[in-house]
Amino acid sequence: MDNYYTKEQDENIIKVSKNINLEKLIFFCQKSLKEKNLKELNLCAIWNAITILDKACIELMNQNSELFRLNKLSTISHTNNYGQNETKHENLKLDIKLIVGKPNIIPEGYKDKFTEEEKQKLDYLFELNTKYNKCKW
């Protein structure tokens, strides 16, 4: 898994933040796949943006039946210096590669297509999620 991404793919990486709108991210990814005729889409998120990334990929796979998913979970560490105190922090990082068409070699972290039953359940859950997030409390 060391050669998970190449330099050419670095230009194709979408970095997801915690403040991004889920529907806009899904729209952007769909538009990128269709207009640019991409064979793969690389997305990454750190720490609290991982749930947004996962939801977006699930919905993209639900809408596009030819997409397959490869996951790579890792950690990023950095240190902060506050005077004489040095603290080390580690955050989770999730890299997801969405591929059009089934990959020849099935690596670790592979997710197959959704069945029709799974798609119906996901559609229902996605509708509930968008209704809940549009509520003003």
Summarize this structure as a short list of keywords or feature phrases:
single chain; alpha+beta; globular; disordered N terminus; 4 helices; 5 strands; five-stranded mixed beta sheet; 137 residues
Which SSEs are present, and which pair or pack?
Blueprint: H1 7-10, E1 13-16, H2 22-35, E2 40-46, H3 50-63, E3 67-82, E4 85-100, E5 110-111, H4 116-134
Parallel strand pairs: 1-2
Antiparallel strand pairs: 2-4, 3-4, 3-5
Helix pairs in contact: 2-3, 3-4
Describe the model:
A 5-stranded mixed beta sheet has the order 1-2-4-3-5. The longest helix has 19 residues, at 116-134. Residues 1-8 have low confidence and may be disordered. The protein has 4 helices and 5 strands; from the N terminus they run αβαβαβββα. The radius of gyration is 17 Å and the shape is globular. Helix 2 crosses helix 3 and helix 3 crosses helix 4. The protein has helices spanning 7-10, 22-35, 50-63, 116-134; strands spanning 13-16, 40-46, 67-82, 85-100, 110-111. The chain has 137 residues and is an alpha+beta fold.
